[in-house]
């Protein structure tokens, strides 16, 4: 168990490094292949050992080896968080298909955090592969029957969000929900079903509320990212179904 957790953590840090790269570059419409990884300040090309997640940051003392500028903590944090999420997935579900779904959700969550907070974008390039991979895993869990029923639930939640968006846009006379949030909710419906899908919306809005109030107060910006909060909500609800069902049973006797 410990060895698997450690292994998944290390694999996760590499994926995290990659996710930070694609979230930043694709959001800015840059190529993810060229140029190779480099220092943003002096363009120093990173050698192989400067590309090792976490480790390279530590041996370089958090500075570029050439120009000594301080490296951003964003990559380090992304790598560590992704590593922890990967290991956590295995810790909860061990060798099972749920672990794969959790790894997909972790990956999506990490990239949505970067792209939506920094650029107010949920990237199709990340979202669509996540949806496709989830459908593949669903096939292994319950065959075409499960895929079909899941797709229907996904479409239903998608339509609910679409209606909220269109009404919201009209009422507030500006973009209320981003298209990314609507598309993301298709995945939520796919994985959670309709009832939990509604809980997902509610929980997402609830988590977003304090952030919304604080950011309105300080930044006075009209647009705020909603994707990260929806993502946390999706992740939490998917992660603790047994815990969640228990509460629902007590509350409304579902
Ligand atoms: Zn440099």
Write the layout of secondary structure elements.
Blueprint: H1 2-27, H2 55-59, H3 73-93, H4 97-119, H5 124-172, H6 179-219, H7 227-239, H8 241-252
This protein binds zinc ion (ZN).
How would you describe this structure to a colleague?
This protein has about 250 residues and is mostly helical. It folds into 2 domains: about 1-95, no CATH class; about 120-254, no CATH class. It has helices at about 1-25, 55-60, 75-95, 95-120, 125-170, 180-220, 225-240, 240-250. α1 (about 1-25) packs across α3 (about 75-95) and α5 (about 125-170) packs across α6. The structure holds zinc ion (ZN). The site of zinc ion has 8 residues, from loops. Zinc ion binds next to loops.
Summarize this entry quickly.
The chain is mostly helical and 254 residues long.
Q: Determine Rg (CA atoms, Å).
A: 20 Å
SSE string: HHHHHHHH
Strand pairing plus helix content: what structural class? mainly alpha
Arithmetic mean of pLDDT: 89
The tally of helices reads 8
Roughly what percent helix? over 70%
Estimate nothing, just give the exact number of structural domains: 2
Distinct ligands: zinc ion
**End-to-end gap:** 35 Å
Total number of strands = 0
Extract low-pLDDT stretches. Answer: none
Report the principal-axis shape. Answer: globular
SS strand fraction: under 5%
The biggest beta sheet is recorded as:
none
């Amino acid at each position: 168990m410990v060895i698997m957790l450690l292994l998944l953590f290390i694999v996760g840090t590499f994926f995290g490094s990659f996710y930070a790269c694609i979230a930043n570059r694709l959001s800015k419409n840059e190529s993810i292949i060229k140029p190779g990884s480099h220092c943003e300040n002096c363009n120093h090309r990173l050698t192989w050992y400067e590309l090792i997640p976490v480790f390279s940051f530590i041996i370089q003392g958090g500075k570029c080896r050439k120009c000594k500028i301080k490296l951003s903590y964003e990559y380090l944090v992304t790598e560590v968080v992704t590593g922890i999420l990967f290991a956590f997935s295995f810790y909860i579900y061990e060798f099972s298909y749920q672990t794969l779904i959790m790894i997909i959700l972790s990956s999506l969550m990490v990239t949505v955090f970067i792209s939506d907070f920094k650029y107010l974008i949920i990237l199709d390039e990340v979202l669509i592969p996540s949806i496709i991979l989830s459908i593949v895993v669903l096939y292994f869990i319950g065959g075409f029957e499960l895929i079909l029923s899941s797709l229907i639930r996904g479409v239903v939640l998608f339509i609910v969000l679409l209606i909220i968006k269109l009404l919201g846009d009209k009422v507030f006379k500006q973009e209320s929900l981003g298209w990314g949030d609507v598309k993301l909710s298709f995945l939520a419906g796919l994985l959670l079903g309709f009832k939990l899908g509604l809980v997902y919306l509610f929980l997402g809005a609830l988590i977003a509320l304090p952030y919304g109030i604080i950011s309105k107060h300080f930044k006075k910006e009209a647009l705020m990212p909603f994707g990260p909060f929806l993502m946390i909500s999706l992740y939490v609800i998917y992660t603790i179904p047994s815990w969640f069902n228990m509460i629902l049973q007590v509350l409304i006797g579902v």
